[in-house]
Amino acid sequence: MSVMLLVLAQPAAAHPQCLDFEPPFKPLWHLEFCAQYEEFGCCDQKTDNVIAERYWDIIDQLEVAGDELCADTLKEIMCQECSPYAAHLYDAEDPYTPVRELPGLCFGYCSEFYGKCRHVVKYLTESQLLRDTSERDVSTFCSVVDLSDRDYCYPNVLKSPDLNSNLGQVVEDPRGCLQLCLTEVANNLRNPVLMLHSDDDTHRMFIAEQVGFVWVYLPDGSRLEQPFLDMSGEVLTTPWLGDERGFLGMAFHPKYRDNGRFFIYYSIQVNSKLEKIRISEMKVSAYDMNTADPYSERVILEIEEPAANHNGGQLLFGVDGYLYIFTGDGGKAGDPFGKYGNAQNKSALLGKSSAH
Ligand SMILES: *[C@@H]1O[C@H](CO)[C@@H](O)[C@H](O)[C@H]1NC(C)=O
């Protein structure tokens, strides 16, 4: 199972995407070389510099050969890596087919390119097919370089108002819904139930699995090998995918940065029979900011659970500084316990959100 983050994106018709499958962005710094993409595209300054270096290497070789006709076209082609439509141009959207070595060129443009630049193909790509066809004839070469989708081949992709009018804007559809796209931030997790940050400027993300592990993800997306917290020995759950019991909630204290306190919510079984949910406070280790102190647990509240389902589990701090605990109604179906169920019973802690 994987965890996805919503990223604001584009109108429905347009679907800009970079070669790494990430959404395009406004680069932090000015782009010297592929300057047309410095407002919105797929290159940061570093990638821009790498492309420029490759370009000047090729130009050097062309000068030796006395052939510089192609310089502008070459630059145009090389900068397509920075296009907000790079994934379309290079056919990178399908991870099961190889990424193109050259951007997809519309036939007319490709013919021009062939006329001026066929001798640079050998510097641009290692692909034997492209190199061979560049020495054969224009129609063979351009049928290889062509992109079957007319709207997205270069330079058509620049001309379509549908694709370009709202680039980089957050767009609403006619019903007022924002257009969003998803980006994967983690995978290979077992029933991930929550993702939190600790609001301490470390920019770590904490992802909890229902079986009772909390993992630390660093800002670069990598996951630390040791879990932040391992409650798998205490937590009651089963391998059954639909089990609603387990490690269900966690919240960092608003002053976590100073006091290292956080709160957890999980299912337990007492004397191998009675089932409860438990809410505890814990602290981070005094020696390692990426590990919880396993001996720090202080139980705050335990509530008996009459059934295996509907266990709630959300823990949140309000702006008032109180910890809010959201409990389920105790389970079965239709809140059947007591005279009028648990949720409407003010003496029952089940089926409530309560502040502490
Ligand atoms: C309300 O909940 C309490 C605590 O679980 C229980 O003792 C009581 O019988 C319930 N009342 C009704 C009317 O169901």
TrEMBL record:
The keyword Transcription does not apply. One of its GO terms (cellular component) is extracellular region. Its main location: secreted. Keywords: Disulfide bond, Glycoprotein, Secreted, Signal. InterPro entries: 6-blade_b-propeller_TolB-like, Folate_rcpt-like, Glc/Sorbosone_DH, Quinoprot_gluc/sorb_DH_b-prop. Residues 191-352 form the Glucose/Sorbosone dehydrogenase domain. Pfam families: Folate_rec, GSDH. Residues 30-177 form the Folate receptor-like domain. Signal peptide: none annotated. The keyword Secreted applies. It is found in: Secreted. It comes from the Eukaryota. Belongs to the HHIP family. This is HHIP-like protein 2. The lineage of its organism: Eukaryota, Metazoa, Chordata, Craniata, Vertebrata.
